[in-house]
């Protein structure tokens, strides 16, 4: 059991400290490392901001531009979020696009979904939101990186 903890601790940090691996400190230091890794991979705060931003983009721009306005609005919001963030937050923005677009598609096709024939439309809408959110955040962060780093 101790070897498994040691291997796991080494795989997370890349190093092994025998002082931290005592029976009382191992669980707390390991828990701290796992917690910091989890928050560096997915930030709930940024997900909430992305959720609100994507919803505003979907409904505001979608109300002014017919046909593909909601997709354009979400793409602009995701691009702005990627441009504003100093870290890669593509996962949060893509997940927010999935949720916002999926809910909007569900509400738009509510009767068809209740009858069972609208489920593919809702899934398609959610997948489009996922792709648009991820791509917008990626290109926004890429532009930020290109503008701020020296050649």
Record keyword descriptors for this entry.
151 residues, 7 helices, mainly alpha, 2 domains
Structure description:
The protein folds into two domains: 2-41; 44-148, no CATH class. The protein is an all-alpha fold. The radius of gyration is 21 Å and the shape is globular. The chain has seven helices and no strands. The model is unreliable at 5-13 and 15-23 (pLDDT under 50).
Helicity, as a percent range: over 70%
Overall pLDDT: 81
Q: Which residue ranges are poorly predicted, with pLDDT under 50 across at least 5 consecutive positions?
A: 5-13, 15-23
What best-fitting shape do the alpha-carbon axes yield? globular
Q: How do the helices and strands follow one another from N- to C-terminus?
A: HHHHHHH
Total of helices:
7
Strand content: under 5%
Could you give a short account of the major beta sheet? none
- Find the structural class using helix and strand composition: mainly alpha
Rg over alpha carbons: 21 Å
Distance between the termini: 50 Å
| Strands, count | 0
Please tell me the total number of domains.
2
């Amino acid at each position: 059991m101790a070897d498994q903890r040691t291997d796991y601790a080494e795989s997370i940090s890349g190093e092994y400290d025998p002082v931290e691996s005592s029976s009382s400190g191992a669980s707390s230091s390991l828990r701290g490392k796992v917690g910091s890794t989890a928050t560096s991979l997915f930030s709930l705060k940024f997900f909430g901001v992305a959720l609100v931003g994507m919803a505003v983009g979907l409904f505001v721009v979608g109300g002014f531009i017919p046909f593909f306005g909601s997709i354009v609005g979400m793409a602009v919001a995701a691009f702005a979020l990627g441009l504003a963030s100093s870290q890669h937050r593509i996962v949060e923005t893509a997940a927010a696009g999935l949720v916002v677009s999926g809910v909007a598609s569900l509400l738009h096709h509510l009767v068809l979904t209740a009858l069972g024939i609208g489920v593919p439309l809702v899934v398609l809408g959610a997948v489009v939101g996922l792709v648009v959110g991820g791509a917008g955040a990626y290109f926004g962060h890429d532009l930020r990186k290109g503008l701020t780093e020296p050649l």
